[in-house]
């Protein structure tokens, strides 16, 4: 193979030339060709609007269910307490009239707690001889 030295051999010109001051004016010409209009900006909220509405609905429902349960339970308790207070302090109904209006299911729902022992009952019956007469009539 023949020895080839790049420094000593005559060089071939490529035939391609650049215009004068081409690279100095290149960036200015490129910026003139780019359109000046601004790109359309889509905000995060507009893009995910349906997810935001769904999240708001879930939060609303999850907060309203416990509040409705609390409101319903307290309103029933208040009505029961008001009714008991009215019957106790304001009503002219006697115990016999109240008993006439109670059903069997109402009597079964009444929770009676008695702390009286049999010995105490016997002592009361021995002291009051008229109790037998009152129970019969």
What's the rounded overall pLDDT mean?
79
| Alpha-carbon distance between the two ends | 146 Å
Number of helices: 7
* Helical proportion, percent range: 55-70%
Approximate strand percentage: under 5%
Give the ordered list of helices and strands. Answer: HHHHHHH
How many extended strands?
Answer: 0
User: How is the main sheet built?
Assistant: none
Using the CA coordinates, give the radius of gyration: 50 Å
Basic shape: rod-shaped
Low-pLDDT segments, ≥5 res: none
- Main structural class: mainly alpha
Report a brief summary of the structure:
The chain is mostly helical and 137 residues long. 64% of the residues lie in helices and 0% in strands.
Annotation keywords:
137 residues, mainly alpha, 64% helix, 0% strand
Structural commentary:
The structure is a single chain. The protein is mainly alpha-helical. The chain contains 7 helices and no strands. The protein is rod-shaped and about 150 Å long. It starts with 21 loop residues before the first helix and ends with a helix.
Walk me through the topology.
Layout: H1 22-33, H2 44-47, H3 49-90, H4 95-101, H5 104-109, H6 118-127, H7 131-136
